[in-house]
Design a protein that fits this description.
By secondary structure, the chain is mainly alpha-helical. The chain contains twelve helices and four strands, in the order H-E-E-H-H-H-H-H-H-H-H-E-E-H-H-H. Strand 3 and strand 4 form a beta hairpin. Helix 2 packs antiparallel against helix 3, helix 4 packs across helix 8 and helix 5 runs antiparallel to helix 9. The radius of gyration is 28 Å and the shape is elongated. The N terminus is likely disordered.
Length: 485
């Protein structure tokens, strides 16, 4: 056994009054007969019309559109649905299709990189200064490299993505069977982002075409079209990763809500409640040993899913964050140049910069928020309170652990069996470091957006100084008008 492995002795089925009872979900949602890919499946036939049920979205249903785009572009395997809660590997035909799409992408990538190093693409770069042209050239090269890296990583992690999806589906199946709950949320933001990405990329390319002077060559059309597709698909994958994190967040939140019912405060509130005939409600602590093994197993699976998503996306996130940082910096600089220019301001360049800034800032905000929500639900720094079962008072102590461990630290442990279970779980949780990182270089959370804008401000000052140096050199080279004597 590994050092972190621990075993909880659970009561046998014979000692239970009702073997494997279905617990009450903290979401108070009823059990629905449907799978994770369709909104309804074989609705039960009843003589009377069923009561109206709240609209509930199954997992993977609201991100079906974005998943279809990734499948068509070869960034996601075209899996086969084996059952309601299981997906299988792609068929040979689907594997060949994904392989063919990736081959076309790599061929176009080589062609575009070659075009960037030749005078063919010179007409796509327009500016007032040489520094601006270099910035646009580097930005285009970073876009190509980011998408190429995304394709490589997605091809390598095909089996990992299928395994993560199966683990989520199997976990949902266990929750339905144990608690009758549907852990779903409206993920319509993914479709909204997908539409916004398509509109912004189309608008940017139209602006670029109108800004080019002269007749555009076919090579420039290919470079512009593939440039827009690369940006759109890379942004789409970031939205997909954010949606997966939201799915994990909902399931961690379910655990914390479930455990919150066992805390000292909740138990005291439950004891203080009276029914209509004056009899107090029975305490739920008797179910804690029975439910604890399921809760801990679900917690460990979620941690494995959380780390699996990070492993699949960390290299892509490093590349995307670097590309976004450079794009935001250069477009802020171009806006500054336009605003402070002595000549006429170009509306085309202003719209170009604003469109880029809106898209990248929105994606960075979405990624930071999704990572921050999930990590905060898993990990937190705070003061926790635990009830000492050998005394009647509570003692406070500092605990660096996840939110689940913090809630467990407040469980009303009125018996030694509860205390032992909690102690084992807290001992394991304290040793775990859970962070969503960009390949281990830095953690991604709500503070990431602020850190990026701080770095953008620093580099923006450097670019402005280069601009002033370039202006001073141009003024020195201007001939001094001769004065008549």
């Amino acid at each position: 056994m590994s050092p972190n492995t621990w075993v909880i002795e659970m009561p046998t089925d014979k000692s239970r009054s009702i073997p494997h009872p279905r617990r009450v979900s903290p979401y108070r949602s009823t059990s629905l007969n449907r799978d994770a890919f369709t909104r309804t499946r074989n609705p039960p036939q009843a003589a009377a019309p069923p009561p109206p049920k709240p609209k509930d979205h199954p997992v993977f249903e609201d991100i079906r559109t974005i998943m279809s785009v990734l499948k068509a572009s070869g960034l996601m395997p075209i899996y086969e649905q084996v059952s309601d809660f299981e997906v299988g590997p792609p068929t040979k035909t689907n594997e060949f299709y994904s392989f063919f799409v990736r081959g076309v992408v790599h061929a176009l990538t080589i062609f575009n990189i070659y075009s960037l190093f030749t005078p063919i693409s010179a007409q796509l770069f327009y500016s007032y200064r040489e520094t601006d042209n270099v910035n646009q050239w580097i930005e285009l090269l970073l876009c190509i490299l980011t998408y190429t890296l995304t394709v490589f990583v997605c091809a390598r992690n095909t089996k990992s993505i299928i395994r993560i999806m199966n683990e989520i589906l199997q976990l949902d199946e266990e929750v339905r069977r144990q608690f009758g709950a549907n852990l779903n949320e409206n993920f319509s933001f993914s479709v909204k982002f997908l539409v916004g990405i398509a509109i912004s990329q189309t608008y940017i390319i139209v602006l670029k075409i109108y800004a080019v002077q002269g007749v555009i060559t076919p090579t420039s059309y290919v470079l512009l079209g593939f440039y827009a597709i690369q940006n759109g698909l890379t942004a789409t994958y970031i939205v997909f990763a954010s949606a997966l994190l939201r799915i994990v967040y909902i399931r961690f939140h379910f655990i914390n809500q479930l455990l919150n019912g066992y805390t000292y405060g909740q138990q005291q509130k439950r004891k203080g409640r009276r029914t209509h005939n004056g009899i107090p409600n029975p305490a739920l602590m008797e179910h804690f040993p029975e439910d604890s093994l399921f809760i801990y197993r679900m917690h460990n699976k979620l941690l494995r899913i959380y780390k699996g998503i990070n492993d699949c996306c960390n290299l892509i996130l490093v590349s995307f964050l670097g590309y976004s940082f450079y794009t935001v910096t250069t477009n802020c600089y171009n806006l500054f140049v336009q605003i402070t220019a002595k000549g006429m301001i170009s509306p085309n360049i202003l719209q170009w910069c604003l469109a880029w800034l809106c898209m990248h800032i929105s994606l960075l905000a979405l990624l930071s928020k999704s990572c921050g929500l999930t990590t905060r639900e898993v990990w937190n720094l705070s003061i926790s309170q635990m009830v000492d079962s050998h005394s009647n008072h509570r003692e406070c102590f500092y605990l660096q652990a996840n939110a689940t461990a913090q809630i467990l630290a407040r469980v009303y442990a009125k018996a030694n069996e509860y205390k032992n279970i909690i102690d084992k779980f807290l001992t394991k949780s304290i040793k775990q470091e859970v962070q969503f990182t960009a390949y281990g270089f830095f953690a991604i959370d709500n503070s990431t957006l602020f850190k990026i804008f701080s770095a953008v401000t620093t580099y923006l000052v450097i670019l402005i100084q280069f601009k002033q140096l370039e202006d001073s050199k141009s003024e020195d080279l201007e001939p001094v008008p001769a004065t008549s004597t």
